Amino acid sequence: MRKLVEDSSGFPECVGYLDGTDIMLRYGLSYYGENYFNRKKQYALNMQGICDHERRFTYVAGGYPASVGDATVFNGTAFFK
Description:
Shape: elongated
Order of helices and strands: HEEEH
Strand content: 25-35%
Structural class: alpha+beta
């Protein structure tokens, strides 16, 4: 599969496509709610996923507050470690 991703992306050693998004919450949390307030002025959780060449998720990580940056979330994933 790695070769298929590498061929479709044009990047040597590429194993997938990574992106992050915010999962919006209807209400803020009562405990440390300000940590879940994002730049769009909404309460949310940060989620990141990795897809293969056929746009299928091969890895998903979530649960971080939306105020945490994407690089920090990625550094805390099992995929990074």
